Design the sequence.
């Protein structure tokens, strides 16, 4: 088991995490673990893009990469606007 650590955040964020965890019947730690596990790093995104292009029979070029980056930006913008 990992050693517990602290994360500094605002009271508002802490309070929101507490409510979200309570609503899900879990702890803030478990909620954060779930969030961290559900998000891809840039390297993971790149690897998935390469694999997806290969499965589609597409050569993974700079143009394909830029299109993928644009798509991720649109996804993040949509997520941010939905959260607001």
Sequence:
């Amino acid at each position: 088991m990992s050693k517990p650590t602290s994360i500094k955040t605002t009271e508002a964020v802490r309070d929101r995490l507490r409510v979200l965890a309570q609503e899900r019947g879990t702890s803030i730690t478990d909620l954060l673990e779930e969030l961290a596990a559900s998000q891809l790093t840039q390297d993971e995104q790149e690897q998935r893009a390469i694999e997806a292009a290969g499965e589609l029979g597409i050569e993974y070029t700079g143009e394909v990469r830029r299109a993928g980056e644009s798509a991720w930006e649109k996804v993040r913008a949509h997520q941010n606007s939905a959260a607001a």
